[in-house]
Write a structure and sequence with these properties.
The protein is of the alpha/beta class. The chain is built from 15 helices and 12 strands. The protein has a domain of 139 residues: Aspartate Aminotransferase, domain 1 (Alpha-Beta Complex). It is globular. Bound molecules: pyridoxal-5'-phosphate (PLP). The site of pyridoxal-5'-phosphate (PLP) has 15 residues, from α3.
């Protein structure tokens, strides 16, 4: 059976050029970038090249880039690092209600350390409005964290507008751009933020490599202390092969200039239109006017999402019921709940996320298979689903 991968927001396959760059680094560059000798300098050069590529990708300076182990660490470093370095009178934190768990759980931990958080509600489209953010800001707000694109529904927040508002009140602004890098243009100056998180494995790079962009002059406390790597902001000998892979993934995007993303958008639209036309009782979740091109979150009325996910998996089709972190726990999506969707609709929603390698033939097969699967599951709903223990 040929398998079809439609879960690119969970992770992406490593692009061949990225794998080649990593293999070569692994085989030939083993020095410690902090060493003075030739081995070290060779490694330092590879590190610098990756840093330049990542900086160029987001319109930043190389010295503003801190390599991390991925999106979660970047989010942690941004939030904890800024909170700890903030002036004594600024202990308040603000974030959107639909942020990734890496942001929400970090804020929750800080809340227990006497750093209260206000979560800004989103509207039914999944958008944070300027009015709602304004209500949350105080003169004690140290940091506002608002994600660029949402991982479950793909909506793009008006980050530039929100950031301007927050900075007017003297707060710093962090954006989790893990789901926007590689899908839409990301430029730190245009966004007007102070910190930005990205992660390699969400744009055909390796897992375990990401970056935090920190605007020059921003006060931030390191969370990993030890050696002086990353300008004293993140101690520990660098994961060079992975960082080289991250750099190669960034270069790939720079060279593609958005072309790949356009192709993916066309496929997503074909899939979405096919499902809405072919399966009755379906609806798209979240606003569609400001949305990344690869994501479609659809509810199937009267169908348990987990059951549909498993049925699709048996057909070789990989999708998700929302954030990968909460799938398998049957915990309803906090994103869909925050948008005010009914529990029923929340439990019947599937996320399709496309990317590199997907084809029109794959999309057509999914559109062809879905009506039959949904019919079968609907026939079982109620007593059938309860008896199955779901
Ligand atoms: C995947 C993801 C993260 C976490 O990134 P990792 O590299 O897996 O730690 C953070 N935020 C968003 C929006 C994500 O999609």
């Amino acid at each position: 059976m040929t398998r079809i991968y439609l879960d690119h927001n969970a992770t992406t396959p490593v692009a061949p050029a990225v794998a080649d760059a990593m293999t070569s680094a692994l085989r030939t560059v083993f020095g410690n970038p902090s060493s003075v000798h030739a081995y070290g300098q060779e490694a330092k050069t590879a590190l610098d090249e990756a840093r330049s590529a990542v900086a160029r990708l987001i319109g930043a300076e190389p010295t503003e880039i801190v390599f991390t182990s991925g999106g979660s660490e970047s989010d942690n470093l941004a939030i904890r690092g800024v909170a700890e370095a903030a002036a004594p009178g600024r202990r308040h934190l603000v974030a959107g209600a639909i942020e990734h768990e890496a942001v929400l759980r970090t804020l929750k931990a800080l809340d227990g350390e006497d750093r209260p958080t206000t979560l800004v509600r989103v509207d039914e489209r999944g958008m944070i409005t300027a009015d709602r953010l304004a209500e949350a800001l105080t003169d004690e707000t140290a940091l506002v964290s608002v994600m660029h694109a949402n991982n479950e529904i793909g909506t793009i927040q008006p980050v530039a507008e929100l950031a301007a508002l927050a900075r007017d009140r003297g707060a710093l602004v962090h954006t989790d751009a893990v789901q926007s890098v590689g899908k839409i243009p990301v430029d730190v100056r245009e966004l007007g933020v102070d910190l930005l998180s990205l992660s390699g494995h969400k744009f055909n790079g390796p897992k375990g490599a990401g970056a935090l962009w920190i605007r020059r002059g921003t006060r931030l406390h390191a969370q990993l202390t030890g050696g002086r790597q990353e300008r004293n902001r993140r101690a520990g000998t660098e994961n060079l092969p992975a960082i080289v892979g991250l750099g190669a993934a960034a270069r790939r995007l720079l060279e593609a200039r958005g072309k790949g993303a356009d192709d993916v958008t066309a496929l997503r639209n074909r899939l979405e239109a096919g499902i809405l036309a072919g399966v009755p009782g379906t609806a798209v979740n979240g606003g569609t006017s400001r949305r990344v091109g690869n994501t479609s979150n659809i509810s199937f009325h009267g169908v348990e999402a987990e059951s549909l996910l498993i049925a699709l998996d048996l057909e070789g089709i990989a999708v998700s019921t929302g954030s990968a972190c909460s799938s398998g726990t049957l915990e309803p999506s906090h994103v869909l709940r925050a948008m005010g969707l009914s529990p029923h609709r929340t439990q019947s929603s599937i996320r399709f996320s496309l990317g590199l390698g997907n084809t029109a033939a794959e999309v057509d097969r999914v559109v062809e298979v879905l009506p039959g699967l949904v019919d079968r599951l609907r026939a079982l709903t109620g007593r059938g689903a309860a008896a199955a223990g779901r």
